[in-house]
Amino acid sequence: xxxxxxxxxxxxxxxxxxxxxxxxxxxxxxxxxxxxxxxxxxxxxxxxxxxxxxxxxxxxxxxxxxxxxxxxxxxxxxxxxxxxxxxxxxxxxxxxxxxxxxxxxxxxxxxxxxxxxxxxxxxxxxxxxxxxxxxxxxxxxxxxxxxxxxxxxxxxxxxxxx
Length: 162
Known about the structure:
The protein is of the alpha+beta class and 162 residues long. The chain has helices spanning 19-38, 40-55, 137-151, and strands at 8-15, 57-63, 68-75, 78-80, 83-85, 91-105, 108-124, 127-134, 155-157. Strands 1, 2, 3, 4 and 5 form a five-stranded antiparallel beta sheet that branches.
C-alpha cells in the first residue's frame, strides 16, 4: 500500500482529559468571556482553564526524512515527550483487551466488564507504540485507516489472535 506521502506527518491520537472535562471547558469559555467585563480575574481563570482543557491532547509526529517519531503530549502548544528513531513503519494494528471496573457505594458493589480495542503503530519487531483506545472496533478501525493512508501502511486486525 505504497502511496505518495509527506516528509513529516503529524496527527492527534487521543484526548488527555475525560469527555466530561471537555463539556465543562465549553461551558467555561463563554462564561469566562462574559465575566471579563464584571469580574475579570474569575473570567481570566475560566478562560485559561478552558483553553488548557480544550488544547491538551496526545499527538504523534512521524518524520520520514530524519527517520524519527515523537509521541508526545500537546499542552498549550508545547510538546512533552521523547523523540525516537525508527527504521521503517511496518503497519498499524488493532488489539482487543478487557477492562473491569469495581464500583462501591456503602454496602453495595458491582463490577462492570467490557472489551476495549487498542490501536498501535508497529515500527519494528520490538517497537510498537499505543495510539488510541476505543470501545467500538469499527470507530477505531476508521480512525486508524485515515492515519494509515497518510503513512502509506495497512491496518491489521489481530483481535481474533488474542
